[in-house]
Amino acid sequence: MKKLLLLATGGTIASIEGEEGLVPGLSAKDLLDYFNDTSLSVDVTYQILMNRDSTNMQPEHWVEIAEAVHQNYDQYDGFVITHGTDTLSFTSAALSYMLQGLQKPVVVTGSQVPISFKHTDAKKNLSDALLFACENIGGVFVVFDGRVMMGTRAVKMRTKSYDAFESINLPYVAMIKENRITYYWQPERNELKLTLDTSLCPDVFVLKLHPGTNPEIFDFLKKLYKGVIIESYGNGGVPFEQRNLLPKIKELIDEGVVVLISTQCLEEGGDLYLYEVGRKVAQYDVILSGDMNKEAIVAKLMWALGKTTNIIEVKQIIETPLAWDLSITWDTED
Ligand SMILES: NC(=O)C[C@H](N)C(=O)O
């Protein structure tokens, strides 16, 4: 019988009605008691790591979760982490970077409706997650509404529907229906040994551009952050007429802040060399995000800056695919 470790962190799945709205209140044991599915023959041990709405998750909590998996790695065949959905993808991406060389599944799940409610997606998600955690596969996965996605590719798309998550720019790994797993593809196996690398620098900011963005915002960012992710438009580029952002971006880079250009478009990634608006900013030492999603970029940049602030080294880390986070090969000017 497979031995699994369930690590509970809170979220709606573990929430109960509080005086001021839903609040995480169930323990890992409560979750399993509600679940009570006898069709799965697994030996589940549980541990409550924290009990918070995932809106309150901070990078330090990602580290706690990664450490818990690492500490227990040899004792279990697979891991299930129950988590709030709001920042679940940030956590799943961060775990994908901090836990390199996983030869066992680490499955992150949650729900849109508490497990204690009559109609809930929690029981299916938990059951699917436990089932998938028994598989002979390595990596961090998100299992939600019957979909299995790589931890670096899941994005929360819907606030209320059960199909809250999509796998962006990478097909689902598998689908689960009535306790049957149908694979579409599988990450290749490797011979790596598990390493825990929790170096994280949280001084990262995401600036979402909109027409009218005031260039002076960069003066504040320069003081507070070591890395700035500019979520630009379409294929990428920044405005250089009227409220010209280019001089401020150059200043930021000259002062040693790492600047990464990404796009507000979720699908297909950017190509900074297509338009003049892109090429102008591409002349500077900016990092390209390809088709990585925002959640993965934030976690990866924090992880990279935890090791080095050297722009060349950070660029090398970010622009190298890791844990299936990036699939685009770089377009260059010629
Ligand atoms: N569905 C959920 O889990 C939402 C909740 N606010 C959380 O992220 O913890």
Output mean pLDDT: 95
Uncertain regions spanning at least 5 consecutive residues:
none
What is the CATH top level name of the largest domain?
Answer: Alpha Beta
Summing up helix and strand content along with how strands pair, one would put the structural category as: alpha/beta
The CATH architecture name of the largest domain reads 3-Layer(aba) Sandwich
**How would the global form be characterised?**
elongated
- CATH domain fold name of the largest domain: Rossmann fold
**If strands are numbered along the chain, what order do they take across the biggest sheet?**
4-1-5-7-8-9-12-13
Describe the main β-sheet briefly.
8 strands, mixed
SSE pattern: EEEHEHEHEEHEEEEEEEEHEHEHEHH
* CATH homology superfamily of the largest domain: L-asparaginase, N-terminal domain
User: Termini separation (Å)?
Assistant: 56 Å
Query: Rg, please?
Result: 21 Å
The total count of strands amounts to 18
Number of domains: 2
Give me the number of helical elements. Answer: 9
Ligand identities: asparagine
Q: Please give the share of residues in helix.
A: 25-40%
Beta-strand content: 25-35%
List the keywords:
single chain, 334 residues, alpha/beta, Rossmann fold, 2 domains, 8-stranded mixed beta sheet, 4-stranded parallel beta sheet, 9 helices, elongated, binds asparagine
